[in-house]
Amino acid sequence: MMHIKTNKILGLFALLAMVISSCSDELDQPQLNNNFAGGTDFSKTDDMIFSLIGVYQSVGDRGWEQPLVVSTRGDDVNAAGDQQGLKNQDRYSYDNSFFGSRTLWETYYGDIIAAHTGMEQIARYQEFADEDGVDLANQYIAEAKVLRAILLFQLSQVYGSVFIPESSNLNDFADVTSVPSKDEVMQHLSDQMDEAIPFLLNLRPNERTDLPGGVTKYTALQIKALANQELKNYQVVAEATGEIISSGKFNLMDDYYELFKTPGKLSNETLYEFQYSDFNSGTGERVGHLYAPYGPNGWTPSVAGASAGWGFFEPSMKYVKFMLDRGETNRLETTVLFTQKGIDSIISTSTYTEATLPSFVSSTTRDGDNLTDNARAIFASGKHYLPTNQLIPGRVEYGSNKNYIVYRYAETLLMYAEAITQGANQTSISADEAFNLVRARASMPPLSGVTLDQIVDEKYAELAMEWGKRFFDMVRLGRNDELSYEGRTFTPDKAFVTYHQNQIDEFPILGNISN
Length: 515
Prior knowledge:
- It contains 19 helices and eight strands.
- With about 525 residues, it is mainly α.
- Among the domains are: about 45-200, Serine Threonine Protein Phosphatase 5, Tetratricopeptide repeat; about 290-400, no CATH class.
- The longest helix is centred in the first third of the chain and has 29 residues, at about 130-160.
- It is globular and about 70 Å long.
């Protein structure tokens, strides 16, 4: 399977056989990212949950480079630091020997195969289950389909044409003769969500008590909407997002700044997030993501000894000036961390002065962490920043204990508003109402009769630095000029990253694809 060797699958099985005993009833604990031993006696139907938890763990265990490969294109972000392959990608010059694109492909497909393995194990348990157990197995299989879809959706956004595994059997890919197009992948995902939704819980993720923060019906509706947005099936987008809105279960967290930090963990805005935890302990076991690539390469933290970052992921000057010119406060302070060199660069290339810049444009965050000038970047991502005063005492890793938001309600509202302006029939509130809910949280004045251009700008302001959403929107809308900035030139043939040479060697058909 896509350069996934048998020994890698065996290694994954070994990983899933490990037992992590640190479960907790608190929402802050990442039950969904722990490994548990699933029994081989399928008559013990209570054990089927372990197969599902193994899928959650596998999908949430992302290497540091993978979200960067998904995210580092677009006029909201610049690649910085010493990863030349990532910097080339950011300038739409794709290197088919870049390790990041290789590991993205291999690990995502490994985890997709793990999801199929989990579904197949659950189906075996289902054979021995009573009526309630059969229903629960259907729910668990549906959850695994949604988790699989998160990864397959991102793979297709990055590469365009990708394989669609239908089982855990790697022999299915021994003699592939075609590769599904991006549109085919997106339609497949939409159909998969239609299959899953009837079996999923009608809850907000943080309402779940069995697996707090786990997949629900609304996670699947969000993925269905995203897939159909890529297909430009805007009526389906309006229907799926409208159902989420009309449920009345979601609302925007009042404090945008804290949404991406500890107080925002599993908020009412979250449709899905990868969960991590230090288990409320300053030492010992932890489940975490490596956030260092997003952090400033130099700083004086308010908590002595807290680690700095690597400076690989930098908000663009174009984005910073766009936000300043709009009069943005909450969202700009949240999204961008400033060095003094960055502030000086704003002043030297604009009409802003030290006196006219907002007070939050400072090299010291409101939580007292001071960014120092360094050779790698003049800005850093605030959405991937956890203030050091929110670290559990004893923990020093950058961003330790921080969750990683995948889908949130603000995007749902803006997708809905866009679908209406793109010609879809209203299925819930008006486009203006959805749009202005997002603006109100950002302390921006309401607008009426919103246009597509205004919604595109609002998505830029709201969703910057999140999973490459700005880049994918601009590609879908054909706004090539927006992506041609600061010396870059974007053309539609640069929409997809090239396959790594390892994948082409294993599947020569990939070398013949022109997305």
